[in-house]
Amino acid sequence: MASDGQIVDLSGSTTSERENFNISGPLHLTKVDWSNPCDRRSVAASLVQSVYILERDRQEKREGSQALAPPWWNAFHFELYRPLIDDADSCVFGAIYQLTSTQNNPSSHEAPRYVIAFRGTITKGDSFSRDIELDVLIIKNGLHLTSRFQIAIQAVRHVVATFGSENVWLAGHSLGAAMAMLAGKNMAKTGISLDSFLFNPPFFSAPIERIKDKKVKHGIRIAGSVITAGLAFAMKNNHQTNRSGETFLSLSSWLPCLYINPSDYICNEYIGYFEHRKRMDDIGAGGIERLATQHSIGGLMLNAMGMQSDEPLHLIPSANLTVNHSQARDFKDAHGIHQWWRSGLHLESKIYNYR
């Protein structure tokens, strides 16, 4: 083993321990209880990890018995139905998995028949520049315009049209969580709610959640809600504003599972985003927040100037929010996919339904 935590094989090449299922996978999960949220989370995270490794296998030209990705889906009796390839750089950014066996599992009726998984940014190899380009487009609310997302949503529609929507999962991490969230929102707008497992989905806004003083943090959020709701009310006759509100309401029955680490500044704003609604209800200002949470100040300002604004990705009405309160070693650990299949996690889950 190399000093940097890598394995050196006989050919002289190196592979990360994190890519090896027998070292870093959820080995404790010998039989899946599909009705258990922890087991479902662990399998979904493992399938997302397998997409990362599919791309690393491609980059390192690991094929056949040298490929490291297959154990990550074989362990749970899935097979690779189809990899999803980005037409811009030929990288693997996603995959469709098909369940082949439930081993007479009594909870098999809750098992997914198909899982469509998307990876996040890879900092190694030739896919890095394309991934960063898409990360920037998330900030600009332009992910839906990319060819990668068009390939992703076509894959989701193919699975649903061919096999039905029952027991079809979406899963993704970081950039991949943004892809899965956008795909889930698109399907929900057509009345199809897919089970979705979104690990560390990006939420780009002012870093209010990092403020330690709770009173200051809550005060800033209240001020933001009042300003946003005021702008939305003032523009109530604006077609674009009304359409945003209608779209938001149409998504309210979709309940994606969001997995957030408070030490991950890329996603931790989701904690305040949902908790703030309850606080506003508690002080009798729930109506203000229900209006404010449908919009962003930036989008409303652009609409006021007659410029069309794309809907921010992070605006979702409902969620099953799971927060990992386990101590993170560093930011990389707090943002990583590996945390989500570890045993003994200190997790807190809450369901937020938009009314």
Can you give keywords for this protein?
two-stranded antiparallel sheet; 12 helices; 15% strand
Overall shape: globular
Range of helix content: 40-55%
Low-confidence parts: 1-14, 300-309
Q: Give the count of helical stretches.
A: 12
- Approximate strand percentage: 15-25%
Major β-sheet, in short? Answer: 8 strands, mixed
Q: Could you give the distance between the termini?
A: 54 Å
Taking strands numbered 1, 2, ... along the chain, how are they ordered across the largest sheet?
3-4-5-6-7-8-9-10
Series of H and E elements: EEHHHEEEHHEHEHHEHHHEHE
Number of strands: 10
Average the pLDDT over all residues and give the rounded result. Answer: 83
Structural class: alpha/beta
| Computed Rg | 21 Å
Structure explained in plain terms:
By secondary structure, this protein is of the alpha/beta class. It is built from twelve helices and ten strands. The strands form two sheets. The chain has an eight-stranded mixed β-sheet, sandwiched between helices. Strand 1 and strand 2 form a beta hairpin. Helix 5 crosses helix 6 and helix 7 crosses helix 10. The protein is globular. The N terminus is likely disordered.
Question: What is the topology?
Answer:
Layout: E1 6-8, E2 14-16, H1 21-24, H2 37-60, H3 71-74, E3 78-85, E4 92-99, E5 114-118, H4 128-139, H5 147-163, E6 168-173, H6 175-188, E7 195-199, H7 214-234, H8 239-250, E8 257-260, H9 269-282, H10 286-292, H11 297-304, E9 319-324, H12 331-335, E10 347-352
Parallel strand pairs: 5-6, 6-7, 7-8, 8-9
Antiparallel strand pairs: 1-2, 3-4, 4-5, 9-10
